[in-house]
Amino acid sequence: MAQLSPSTLDKADTLWRMLSGFAFGSFPRPTLLIADEAQGLKGPILELIRALYDRGDLARAGDDSRPAFGGVLVGNSTFLGKGGNQRLASFQPLLSRITHNITLPGPAKTEYAALAAGLFPAPDDQALCDMLQAAGVERGNLRTMTIAARQFRARTVEGMAPDARAALLRSILRSKGGA
Fold this sequence. Notes:
Blueprint: H1 6-19, E1 32-36, H2 43-54, H3 57-60, E2 70-74, E3 78-80, E4 86-88, H4 109-119, H5 126-139, H6 143-155, H7 162-175
Helix pairs in contact: 4-5, 5-6, 5-7, 6-7
């Protein structure tokens, strides 16, 4: 492990005790560390995870009396760095420990359509539904759609004209980085 202060070592030991499980013994008690939005983990955190993971090497080598833990990193392959620059996620400190590297495909067009129909189910909202679906497909995610629909509902008023409703949704979607 890189040069760590005594207090950092104490925290690492505490974290190790929390993560340690006995996955390979007669009465297995496996432990799994799951990190969502892992693309945002900084180098020192990745190094800490690597160092703690390596403490379980004897267990993974067959000594079922020794503790270990597994890990799952979930995130995007790209993210926005400082200044809004798009960056490629790097898990370099952990690459030699990866047993499974799975890239899931983005949502299918039918999933965008189903979500849009659920968010704007009324038949008179078909134009809004189509606009929302197109925005989701363009951005490659479902989250933008749900946020835009929520913001749209918060800003609409009873009896609002259809063209004003469409203009409002278009404005909200543009604020999310769309055309």
